Amino acid sequence: MLAIRLSRPVSQLPGKTLSVCDRANGTRQSLLFSSASFIRMSRRTYAGEVDPVGSKAVLVTGCDSGFGFSLAKHLHSKGFLVFAGCLMKDKGHDGVKELDSLKSDRLRTIQLNVCSSEEVEKAVEIVHSSLKDPEKGMWGLVNNAGISTFGEVEFTSMETYKQVAEVNLWGTVRMTKSFLPLIRRAKGRVVNISSMLGRMANPARSPYCITKFGVEAFSDCLRYEMHPLGVKVSIVEPGNFIAATSLYSPESIKAIAKKMWDELPEVVRRDYGKKYFDERIAKMETYCKSGSTDTSPVIDAVTHALTAATPYTRYHPMDYYWWLRMQIMTHLPGAVSDRLYIY
C-alpha cells in the first residue's frame, strides 16, 4: 500500500527524515521519506461529489462541541436538514445555544444521550415527525458522540471500561439499530467516527482502543449487510485532534490522574510506585498538547462520505506520522512494529 501511495521513487523526491517513535514512550527510530508524497496523501482529492438536496436529512450525535459541533454547522451550510444531537441541550450548553442562535428551519438541536434508550427512541420520533415524507426515510446518520480516557490496564477500573464502552461502542450500536429503518428507506449513509486507535493499539489507552476496535468491527459487519440494500457505511479514523476537540485540559488530566491513583488497589500502588505513575501521566500530557488544531480534514471526510456517489470505506484524516505508523502496525509482522514502538 505504501508503494502505491508513492507516485515517484523516493530518491527523486525531496527527502524528509521521519522519526518513527512511540510518542508516549519515547522510543525513536529514523526513516527517510518524501514529505511531498505524504502531503498529497493527507490532502486526498475528493472527486465525484453529489450536491446534497435540501430535503436530505442527517442526524449527527455529540454536537455540543468538537467535531459534532463543527459538522452540524458545516452540513447545514451545504444544504442539509440537520438534526444535531446534544447531550447537554437540557442544561443550556454554550454550543447548543450557538447552534440554536442560527434560527434556521434546517438545523434543529435535540436532547440526545446515546446511552439512553428512551432519549434515542424520542430522537427517532422527532426526526420521523419532522420529515416531509417519512416513507422516503432519512439520508444520513453520523455516529460522532464519544468519550475518552487514559490509564494502563492495572490503573483502570472496570467501571471506567464500562463507561467508555457504553458511549463509544454501545451508543453507536444503539443509534444505528434505531435509525436503520429510516436510513434503509432512503438508501442512505451511516458514517461512524472511529479513530486511528481503532486500528492500532497504544499503551495507556486500552479503554478507548477497545471501543474503537469494536466500532471498526461493527461498521464492517454492517457494511456487508447493508450493501445489497443500497445503504453505504463509511468509517472515519481521525488522528490526534485532542487539541482541537478539547477532550482534555491540563486540569482534567490531573483530576483523572488523582482519582485513578486514589482508587488503585494498594498492591498496584506499591508495585508500580508513584514515580512510574507520574511519568505515565506526564507522557499523556505531552501527547494531548501535540494534536492538530485544524478539524477541517475530519469535516471534509464526513462530508464526502455523505455526499459522494461512491464514498470510501475508510477515511484517514491524520498527519503523515500517524498514517505511516498505522500502515506499519497493521501491515507488517508484529515483531517489526513491536521493535519500533515497544522495545
Automatic annotation (TrEMBL):
Stated name of the protein: D-beta-hydroxybutyrate dehydrogenase, mitochondrial
GO CC annotations on file: mitochondrial inner membrane; mitochondrial matrix
PROSITE patterns: ADH_SHORT (PS00061)
Pfam family, one: adh_short
Lineage per the UniProt record: Eukaryota, Metazoa, Chordata, Craniata, Vertebrata
GO terms assigned for molecular function: 3-hydroxybutyrate dehydrogenase activity
Record keywords: Allosteric enzyme, Lipid metabolism, Membrane, Mitochondrion, Mitochondrion inner membrane, NAD, Oxidoreductase, Transit peptide
Cellular localisation: Mitochondrion inner membrane; Mitochondrion matrix
Source species: Otolemur garnettii
Cited CDD domains: type2_17beta_HSD-like_SDR_c (cd09805)
Catalytic activity of the protein: (R)-3-hydroxybutanoate + NAD(+) = acetoacetate + NADH + H(+)
Family: Belongs to the short-chain dehydrogenases/reductases (SDR) family.
GO biological process: steroid metabolic process
Assembly behavior: Homotetramer.
EC nos: 1.1.1.30
Superkingdom in the source lineage: Eukaryota
